[in-house]
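Something for you to look into today, if you have time. Could you write out one complete protein record for me, on any chain you like? The space below this message is yours for that.
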Amino acid sequence: ATIHALKVLIDRNGKLIYGEAIQMHGGMGITDELDIGHYAKRLMMINATLGDGTFHRSKFIESTYAAA
């Protein structure tokens, strides 16, 4: 359950951080010339392969209620 909760936090905060960074840098933020573009793509791939915040939120709720 702890892993699911951590993944939800990482997903939410990661999207906030890279969204603000891309907004601040404009079009350059989505290119490979700046590191933020690389990290944004990396977070998207991690979400695609390991599950996004919505998936882990539902798994966290299931495991919490199953333990009760």
About this structure: The helical segments are 2-25, 35-50, 53-67.
